[in-house]
Amino acid sequence: MGGFRKIIDTVCEKVSYVSMAVTFIMMMMTTVDVVLRKVSVRGINGSYELTEVGMVTLVFCAIAFLQTNRGQIRVGMLVERFPERARHFLEGVILLLSAAILAVICYATYLQIGKQYEAQLTTSLLHVPIYPFMAITSFGLLLYTLAILANATEEFGKWLKCKPLRDGRGERADGQDERANG
């Protein structure tokens, strides 16, 4: 499973560079737009629309990279109180459920690509087609789903490596206190 994890991490990192580039372009465009509005009467035509489609690219090209680095915000007040073995199992189950939900969303987004292409949906001012950004969204969600699956397999691997507890007090089978080490 290490090879799968390595491939996902590498692809997500490379795709995150697209997100960084789009962020830089959006910052420069917004800065130039503001300066032009202050200096002259007009700014950059369609800068708002370009920012909208840029945000789609930025978010969906970065979210999988964030997951591979475990950068998502987590609230673990309840789970952190569990013994190590139970915690890894529960984390794995939660990640599997998340991946299943994301897979459905990814598939629905994928179906929207064709519908938006057939309908020839575009932005209102610049007439930029919408379907390529739906494709970016679908691809980003696919990477995100795969990153979550990789994390789930890691958690289940940790669960299998943990020794079962002898009792419910957090004492490990090897005699070490789980809560003191955890």
What is the N-to-C succession of helices and strands? Answer: HHHHH
- Describe the oligomeric state of these chains in a short phrase: single chain
Percent of residues in helices: over 70%
Separation of the first and last Cα atoms: 25 Å
Number of strands: 0
Number of helical stretches of at least 4 residues? 5
Tertiary shape: elongated
Regions with little confidence, pLDDT below 50 for 5+ residues: 169-174, 177-182
Beta percentage is under 5%
Whole-number count of domains: 1
Structural class: mainly alpha
Could you tell me the mean pLDDT?
Answer: 87
**Major beta sheet, specifics?**
none
Radius of gyration: 22 Å
